[in-house]
């Protein structure tokens, strides 16, 4: 398996994954890979990693042996005026250009302004949180992969951002405690951007029951898990007076010529949203009253 990542300046990081090889086969294998990947002038391969993976999986595995066999450790990406250094094991959006549109719209809807604190749940190398950090009081990012969290910290320093905090761990283990320990005076908003499986029930419950959390943007690459999670965040229940309400949604064509896309969905607390339905109902009633004998234009029969 070969994973290739192209930077905005045309440089490439490549990770080659094979089954483990005997010690005496390793050197010749490395020589062959490096020579094959660097002889092409048109592609500037600046970093090559080799990972041994004996499991039945073609994904980058955080705990499998990994070796830098050529060039620099990380690839630099430029995004919305900031620089991000990323390694081979960290998630990074596949399409840099569309990614700017995605983050731009997500943050426009989220409005992480002034004194508000922002949670970046499943933050990867900290891209969304860092893009928001100059607008809000504080950003707290949570991410499972240690390499990505190290990059998020380094990326904050690289961009001279000093109001962020990055926590490594599973969101379902870290987030409930983190929300409980928040300064109660602080208003909070959140971006959640989980993997295809969506958010863990514990995370959904913690987000829903945190009254300081007024607004949330859900970024998703899987409409099935998005729908399931949104139902859990919005369905009215007797014990919860103030569920979230979905307000806006848009699809972003992150993967052109495929059936896949990213979704952005804005949720606000129901107490902060004016229900448009009474207005619509009042309008329909006044229109019906203005029609002679309330005639709706039909043949006169009831329904
Ligand atoms: C779709 S990516 C989004 C990353 C980042 N927001 C971005 O736009 O680049 C999902 C991220 O969630 C992380 N992740 C997966 N399961 C997680 C969990 N249980 N808790 C926290 N992070 C998790 C993955 O490692 C990955 O970085």
From TrEMBL:
A GO term, aspect molecular function: RNA methyltransferase activity
Active site annotation, chain numbering: 221, 221 (nucleophile)
Short name of one Pfam family: tRNA_U5-meth_tr
Domain of life where this protein originates: Eukaryota
GO biological process entries: methylation; RNA processing
Alphabetized UniProt keyword annotations: Methyltransferase, S-adenosyl-L-methionine, Transferase
InterPro entries assigned to the protein according to its UniProt record, in alphabetical order: MeTrfase_TrmA_AS, SAM-dependent_MTases_sf, TRM2_met, U5_MeTrfase_fam
Binding site for S-adenosyl-L-methionine: 93, 143, 193
Residue numbers spanned by region Disordered: 273-303
Family: Belongs to the class I-like SAM-binding methyltransferase superfamily. RNA M5U methyltransferase family.
Name of the protein in its database record: RNA methyltransferase
């Amino acid at each position: 398996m070969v994973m290739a990542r192209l930077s905005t300046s045309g440089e490439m990081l490549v990770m080659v994954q094979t089954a483990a090889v005997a010690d005496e086969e390793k050197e010749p294998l490395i020589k062959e890979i490096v020579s094959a990947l660097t002889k092409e002038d048109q592609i500037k391969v600046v970093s090559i990693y080799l990972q041994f993976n004996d499991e039945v999986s073609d994904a980058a595995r955080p705990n499998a042996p990994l070796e830098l066999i050529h060039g620099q450790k990380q690839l630099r990406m430029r995004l919305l005026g900031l620089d991000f250094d990323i390694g081979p094991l960290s998630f990074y959006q596949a399409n840099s250009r569309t990614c700017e549109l995605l983050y731009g719209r997500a943050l426009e809807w989220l409005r992480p302004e002034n004194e508000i604190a922002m949670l970046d749940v499943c933050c990867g190398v900290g891209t969304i949180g860092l893009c928001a950090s100059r607008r809000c009081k504080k950003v707290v990012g949570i991410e499972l992969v240690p390499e990505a969290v190290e990059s998020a910290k380094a990326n904050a320093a690289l961009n001279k951002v000093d109001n962020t905090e990055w926590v490594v761990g599973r969101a379902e283990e870290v987030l409930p405690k983190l929300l409980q320990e928040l300064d109660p005076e602080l208003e909070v908003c959140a971006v959640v951007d989980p993997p295809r499986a969506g958010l863990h029930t514990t995370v959904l419950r913690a987000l829903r029951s945190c009254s300081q959390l007024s607004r949330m943007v859900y970024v998703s690459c899987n409409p099935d898990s998005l729908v399931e999670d949104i139902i859990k965040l919005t369905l009215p229940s007797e014990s919860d007076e103030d569920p979230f309400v979905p307000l806006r949604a848009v699809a972003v064509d992150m993967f052109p010529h495929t059936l896949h896309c990213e979704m952005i969905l804005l949720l606000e607390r129901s107490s902060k949203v004016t229900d448009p339905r009474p207005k619509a109902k009042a309008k329909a009633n006044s229109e019906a009253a203005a029609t002679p004998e309330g005639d709706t234009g039909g043949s006169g029969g009831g329904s």
